[in-house]
Specification:
CATH superfamily of the largest domain: Hypothetical protein af1432
Largest sheet: none
Distance between the termini: 43 Å
Number of strands: 0
Strand content: under 5%
Helix content: 40-55%
CATH topology of the largest domain: Hypothetical protein af1432
């Protein structure tokens, strides 16, 4: 009988993955050494896996509401799939697999109710308090809101992950004010840290040049792109939102997908290149034009998603190794290389889902209602102080120094809610109605 990595059980600490220095394993709040068969990065992964934030993702929207369909993915199942893709790709490049796994499991922790629609709603509400961004909220959860370790003065160190783990989970290592310019000259709305979380950000980014992301963060980001590009299409097809054959048989549908891909993901790319990327995908042996709901068709769709994940991951692996060689590629000693054609193909898959699901006219009233629910909840909690806040957030509200800090606490509370809980709170607190949840 053997323990982790084929070692006899309790044979001492596991061998460390090459390419990591002792400082990569430092924690913001130093902890005494532990005699364990687990590595520091395995411990990081366990802390995220057992976190309340990860559990809540099971009731948060990925593309469609969690209770809308038994098949559709939630933020939790998406995060597990990203972790599987990222762990394998990262390991093949030399990254510590548990470190990449931690980043992948963490990457959506900061998303509020109702997915990206909810994120946009809270960002508009939070304009005067420094904005709201799901990735910055992720860091806030990892380093403050999740309860695991406390400093001697009683302030929270969150899960107290290692330096390398926090850096790996940081997809956008800059503040809102320092966000880079986009190709159209406007400043990106994406950022990874709020102003009052800068102390821990500066700690784990110490010595990192500029705004570059770590190898592990780049693997996580690519795994996220790959996963939702194919899985959102799978969900849409299986739920009968569209058929892929439409792209080949109805010119208007093809034009719609190409234009949506350009507008949403490839604004400076020639539409002819997007068209060529779509054609390459259609020419693969695994492309499923029509879904009839049979077991054969469902199996074919599963095979398509699996083969496309392999196609995109292998292309990135080969291109990265070609540039950086066969040494372990870790932390800030290399970059993930994605061939231009692969970037276009991934964007096309995302564009298909965007064209048929995210921009569906039938869903626009729902999106508007979701934004209204969050706005009214924030307004009510703003005016009632700590009265309705969970005890943890009520304490934060009492400790806040000014109105902006108190607004941030309210945003933390609302962002923590699941889709169904946000609706329940709105019914009960805003509308004064009794909310009845049906249990079977």
């Amino acid at each position: 009988m053997f323990g982790p990595a084929g070692r006899p059980p309790y044979a001492g600490r596991p061998a460390e993955t090459p390419g990591y220095a002792p400082r990569d394993r430092d924690r913001w709040l130093p902890e005494p050494p532990k005699s364990s068969y687990r590595s520091d990065f395995e411990r990081d992964r366990a802390r995220v896996l057992h976190s309340a934030g990860l559990r809540r993702l099971g009731a948060k929207t990925q593309v469609v509401a969690p209770d809308a369909d038994d098949f559709a993915r939630t933020r939790l199942t998406h995060s597990l799939e990203v972790a599987q893709v990222g762990r394998e790709l990262g390991r093949s490049l030399g990254c510590d697999p548990d470190l990449v796994d931690t980043a992948c499991l963490s990457h959506d922790l900061g998303h509020p109710p109702f997915g990206h629609n909810g994120e946009k709603a809270l960002d508009a509400i939070a304009e005067e308090a420094g904005g709201f961004e799901g990735n910055a909220q992720t860091l806030r959860l990892l380093a403050r809101l999740e309860q695991k370790k406390l400093f001697s003065d009683g302030t929270s160190a969150g899960l107290n992950l290692t330096r390398a783990a926090l850096d790996a989970a940081c997809k956008y290592p800059w503040t809102r004010e320092n966000a880079p310019l986009r190709p159209d000259g406007t400043r990106s709305r994406k950022f990874g840290v709020y102003e009052d979380d800068l102390p821990v950000f500066r700690w784990f980014r110490e010595g990192v040049p500029g705004a570059r992301t770590s190898m592990e963060a780049q693997v996580m980001d690519l795994a996220d792109d790959i996963s939702y590009s194919v899985h959102d299409v799978e969900d849409g097809v299986v739920n009968a939102a569209f058929q892929l054959k439409w792209l080949d048989t109805v010119p208007e549908h093809r034009e719609r997908v190409v234009e949506t891909t350009r507008q949403w993901y490839l604004p400076v790319t020639d539409p002819a290149e997007i068209e060529a990327g779509l054609a390459r995908l259609e020419a693969t042996d695994v492309w499923v034009g029509e879904m009839d709901g049979s077991r054969r068709a469902l199996a074919a769709m599963k095979d398509m998603t699996s083969q496309l994940i392999g196609r995109f991951s292998t292309a990135a692996f080969d291109a990265t190794r070609q540039v950086f060689g066969n040494d372990p590629l870790t932390r800030h000693n290399a970059d993930v290389v994605v061939p231009a054609e692969t970037e276009v193909e991934i964007a096309v898959m995302k564009g298909i889902a965007a064209a048929y699901v995210m921009t569906s006219e039938q869903r626009q009233p729902l999106y508007a209602r979701q934004r209204e629910v969050l706005a009214e909840l924030v307004e009510l909690l703003d005016t009632t102080g700590e009265k309705y806040l969970d005890p943890m957030f009520a304490h934060d509200w009492r400790e806040a120094d000014d109105d902006a800090a108190r607004r941030r606490v309210v945003l933390d509370q609302v962002a923590s809610l699941t889709d169904s809980t946000a609706i329940e709170w709105h019914h009960t607190l805003v509308r004064g109605e009794t909310f009845t949840r049906v249990w079977i």
